[in-house]
Amino acid sequence: SASAPLLAVRDLEGWYGESHVLHGIEFDVAPGEVVTLLGRNGAGKTTTLKAIMGILAKRKGSVQFEGRELIGAPSRAIAKAGIALCPEERAIFSSLSVDENLMLPPVVKPGGMALDTIFEMFPNLKERLNSQGTKLSGGEQQMLAIARILRTGAKMLLLDEPTEGLAPVIVQQIGRTISRLKSEGYTIVLVEQNFHFAASVADRHYVVEQGRVIDMIPNAELGANTEKLHAYLGV
Ligand code: ATP
Question: Residue ranges of the ABC transporter domain (predicted)?
Fold first, then answer.
């Protein structure tokens, strides 16, 4: 049906070795939606993204994407299904140029964003095409990391703290990028510590605490829930 979620996470559990950190994460993302995972440090947000992407070795439960179960699938099959993760540490090849970084990720699925569109969306990257990754500013590195996952053809993007450590003007640029991606039909799960940024781009917010989703707040109802959120986030 039209309201079927694109991504449905149910009873998702995850471990690092013997350490049990996800205790039954549940949330849905509708096609074209931007949702955030909010919560304190160590709540399990990054681990949730890793479990969805299949790069957390020990996980169980259910992750359905377009109605297909992905929980047992290897990460390359998950990428091929159309999900991409942009990790917190901005996985770019720092010894390679912008150009080389954009050519290296395999287009794992037809429909990867064309380079022309990428350069239109990130004009800075075009100017710095021959610059080595290490010479880029933090903001440029983040743009490159996002550009690389757009090359893969994924339609669901998992973005882990894309604004971390960036100047306000760059944070605004990333906000505009996310809004544009949404308008083009991408679906986005965003882990954020910058609450104002989260409120400026997302449709709904899921609150993660100790490896569980304990609440969901529509963006339009944030104002009425400020106190509750402050208590959740400890701010
Ligand atoms: P943060 O903003 O600090 O990244 P988070 O909500 O993303 O917070 P996670 O990184 O998912 O939290 O961490 C969840 C729990 O798992 C924490 O207790 C953390 O210490 C632990 N953890 C994270 N990475 C590892 C790892 N590689 N090995 C063992 N434990 C880990």
Answer: 7-235
Ligand 1, residue 193: give the atom nearest the CA. Answer: 2
Greater model confidence, 23 or 107 = 23
Q: What spacing in Å lies between the alpha carbon of 57 and ligand 1's midpoint?
A: 14
- What DSSP state is assigned to residue 97? B
The pTM (predicted TM-score) of the whole model is 0.94
Task: Look at 13-22, 37-46, 60-69, 84-93 and tell me which has the smallest mean pLDDT.
Answer: 84-93
- Residues in contact with ligand 1 by the CB-under-6-Å rule are 16, 19, 21, 39, 41-47
| Residue 1 predicted with pLDDT over 50 | no
Enter the tokens of residue 174: 């990333």
Q: Which of 13, 15, 18, 21 to mutate to test the pocket of ligand 1 (most atoms within 8 A of CB)?
A: 21
Element containing residue 136 per DSSP (H, E): none
Quick one: 72 exposed, middle or buried, by C-beta within 10 A (0-12, 13-18, 19+)? exposed
For the beta carbon of residue 96, count every other beta carbon within 10 angstroms: 15
Q: Report which protein residue has its CA nearest ligand 1's atom 25.
A: 16
- Token representation of residue 175: 């906000």
Query: Which atom in ligand 1 lies closest to the alpha carbon of residue 44?
Result: 11
Query: Contact 219/204 with Cβ under 8 angstroms?
Result: yes
Neighbours of 76 (CB within 10 A): 11
Number of Cβ within a 10 Å radius of residue 234: 8
Predicted ipTM of the assembly: 0.95
